[in-house]
Amino acid sequence: MVDETEAGKGRRTPTRKEAEAARKKQMKVPMTRKEQAKRERAAREEIRLKQREALKTGDEKYLPLRERGPVRKFCRDYVDRRWNFAEFLLPFLVVAFLIMIAGSTNANVQTVLTSIIYPVVIVGTLIDEFVMVRGLKKQIKQRFSPDDVKGNTAYAVLRTTQLRRFRLPKPQVKRGAPLAQRY
């Protein structure tokens, strides 16, 4: 005979499947705010690592938002396939600064540098940028839509001012290579 005075637990015993699901759910839910912050930091770091790798390889899926899209890829390829006067501007300025410091005793060196060479380099850069932007606008209008020109030319100009080896995303085309038909 069973003694009916004993109290039961008041609920049915969960199935094995339900018990395992409950345990897994407990493992996923952070116990404290610190633990949750730690998991979020780890997730952000993982995204950053994927983006950094994508900047090296050109993987479109993980690129940062400002670098994504067929128009931006086209702009990068358009800039990377040509020689740009602007990419040599910064090294020239560093060399000119060093010459100015080292040649400070010789007034002829400073005069030639500041009155002839420096303006020629600046004007050359401006002319090259003008030619590049004009050609880029024309190509974007042909391949995409006229609305895509805005913002992408500034992106391309900024890319030309960087030395080729330090550009991110890394150049995917060689200098002088023809542009692909599809993007």
Automatic annotation (TrEMBL):
Say which species the protein is native to.
Aeromicrobium ginsengisoli
Q: Which UniProt keywords apply?
A: Membrane, Transmembrane, Transmembrane helix
Positions of transmembrane segments: 83-104, 116-136
Under InterPro entries, the record lists: DUF3043
Extent of Basic and acidic residues compositional bias: 32-43
Question: Which residues lie within the region annotated Disordered?
Answer: 1-43
Is Transmembrane helix among the key words of this record?
A: yes
Q: What is this protein called?
A: DUF3043 domain-containing protein
Superkingdom of origin: Bacteria
